[in-house]
Amino acid sequence: MTAALVATTGANVALAAPVSTVQKARAAGRPLAVTPACDGHETPAAMEGPLFKPQSPERTDLVTPAIRGVRLDLSGVVYDTACKPLPGALIEFWQCDQNGDYDTAGFSLRGHQYTDGRGAFGLRTIIPRDYWGRWGQRAPHIHTQVQAPGGPALITQLYFPDDTQAYGRDFAALNAADRLINRACTITLAGPKGGRYTGAFDFVIQTTAT
After folding, report:
1. How many CB atoms lie within 10 A of CB 185?
2. Considering the chain, what percentage of its residues have pLDDT values greater than 90?
3. 17/5 Cα distance (integer angstroms)
């Protein structure tokens, strides 16, 4: 899917420039082994899954009145494999809600955005719930699709550290049981503080087809 094919229905929601980068997380004393600084290696890909919907609204805030989950403010930078930030990169996000349900009728907890002039993005959302699907019980994760202008799309899934606290669930056990998990795609979290987490994840993507 190219950026030109993504409809921009829905209003943009203003979001302050991301401040919870990997460097901020490092300063907070969080372990960063799974979200290192750019080293030129592409972020690992994952399956798209059956619940992707095209033509999501362009927005940076996915939290609507019906969403009651644990808040997450996620930010980061999209780099190419030479570790150069990529302005104007398309990022699509979709995930389930606090009950483990995906909205297949509308666009709840679905949206896309473009990185700013520094290659940075920011997203307001919630930590998703685990759920049962065709591949068994899935650990909480956020689906993403990242694409430089005119480049190939990277499809992947972002996961949460074992010590995440949400919905009374044991994230360590859920992560261990999920046969599709890739620990290299674990978000760095700080918190919870005031009932919400701050997360950081940087993407590294190809800009030309290989």
Report:
1. 21
2. 73
3. 26
pLDDT in tens, 20-72: 344 444 455 444 444 456 887 999 999 998 899 999 999 999 999 889 999 99
pLDDT at 71: 97
What's the pTM value of the predicted model, to 2 decimals? 0.83
The span from the CA of 56 to the CA of 108, in Å, is 9
Backbone angles phi, psi at 33, to 5 degrees: -60, -30
**What is the three-state SS of the chain?**
CCHHHCCCCCCCCCCCCCCCCHHHHHHCCCCCCCCCCCCCCCCCCCCCCCCCCCCCCECCECCCCCCCCCEEEEEEEEEECCCCECCCCEEEEECCCCCCCCCCCCCCCEEEEECCCCCEEEEEEECCCCEEECCEEECCCEEEEEECCCCCEEEEEEECCCCCCCCCCCHHHHHHHCCCCCHHHECEEEEEECCEEEEECCEEECCCCC
Residue 124 pLDDT greater than 80, yes or no: yes
